[in-house]
Amino acid sequence: MRGSTITGISIDGEALVERLAALASVGAIGDTDGACRLALTGEDRDGRNLVVAWMHDLGMDVSIDGIGNVVGTLAGAEPGPAVMCGSHIDTVRTGGRYDGNLGVLAGLEVVEAVQRSGIITRWPLAVGFFTGEEGSRFAPDMLGSLVYTGGLALEEALDIVGTDGAVVGEELERIGYRGSAPCPSPPPRAFVELHIEQGPILFAESIQIGVVTGVQGISWSEITVAGQSNHAGTTPMAMRRDAGLAAARVAAFVHDLAGEFGPPQVATVGRLELHPNLVNVVASDAVLTVDLRNTDEALLLEAEARLAAFLEDLAAGTGTGITTRRLARFAPVEFDPEMVARVERVAGELGLSHRRLCSGAGHDAQMFAPVCPTAMVFVPSWEGISHNPAEHTEPEHLEAGANVLLRVMLELAEVVEVRS
Length: 420
Ligand code: GLV
Ligand code: MN
Ligand code: MN
Description:
- This protein is α+β, with helices and mostly antiparallel strands.
- It has helices spanning about 15-25, 40-55, 100-115, 145-150, 155-160, 170-175, 200-205, 245-260, 295-320, 335-350, 365-370, 395-415, and strands at about 60-65, 70-75, 85, 120, 125-130, 190-195, 210-215, 215-225, 230, 265-270, 270-275, 280, 285-295, 320-330, 335, 355-360, 375-380, 415-420.
- The strands form four sheets. Strands 1, 2, 3, 5, 6, 7, 15, 16 and 17 form a nine-stranded mixed beta sheet that branches.
- Mean pLDDT is about 95; it is low at about 1-5.
- The chain binds glyoxylic acid (GLV) and manganese (II) ion (2 copies).
- One manganese (II) ion binds near residues 92, 99, 134 and 387.
């Protein structure tokens, strides 16, 4: 049958849930649903190998680039840039099974549905997973997609040193994922990322689909405090140069700053290391991270300036030396209005409840936004919990999101033939 009809084609929701479970068993965290596959570790390699094997099973052409991004492509009737979806399969240390993984594995189910239905698209369909989206081992976050889209030179990315002292280029070699496909890569025709919301809005409002309008700005810094270790029992309070105290004051300051600014400003000290970290020793050194986010670039700049001024006063007040290193900085991103409207229309046509919202989390899609028409689809996160092994999304929501992804991709890739 020739024509452009795509009614009656849908995702196999059970197969999607099964793939998510199989991938989560790689790096499983005890008997939880979660997984730990920090970027470029052995667990990440094993997860990658599984997804690459699935891509080959689907007859996709698989390419790996110099930063380890993997793209599987299903040919269309005509050559040309693909309509791409994807996300990441690396996790934070306390990862759930849906963050990132959903966007990649739903992409495989899109390919499977297309093949099952005998659909031939005009343009190729591609599914990618991008290296080191989480940023918790190697900063910045969205590392692979940043290099893929030309936002960071490959040579610079390969030299990045992780929290454990490992180097990106060496780890890529070690796990066998330093590929030869060029990066930056020519942009795809369009990019669509399905992801769990990771926040409370859709769950609280019992809405099935989030139509993502953009991603808020992200500012990450690492703050190092140098004080003096000394005896906790004998050193008078006035004579201390306490790095632990300074670190605690930073955490309290950014918390209060977010309170003063009000939503959507958020602020987090997520990593804090004290040295020598002993009960009876004043800490000589502290290393901590600050994560500031806001949808408004001017306010984010103001928050950064307020923090910098605070750190200057803090160093003087505590007799410590304080230095700051930028780990990541991304301005807020707005997605292509036509793509956003397309996602919204498709969700409506499928009879799914939906609302527009801005993403609080960072995503690979934000790196694609400057180079091609880009959109995101969100599905609800149970109680808004994410970056936690308890992360959960109901199977019917996974399936609904994947069906929106399928429709949007088929529209963009143009169905030219349906073989019965
Ligand atoms: C990525 O998961 C982020 O920190 O938003
Ligand atoms: Mn993610
Ligand atoms: Mn994440």
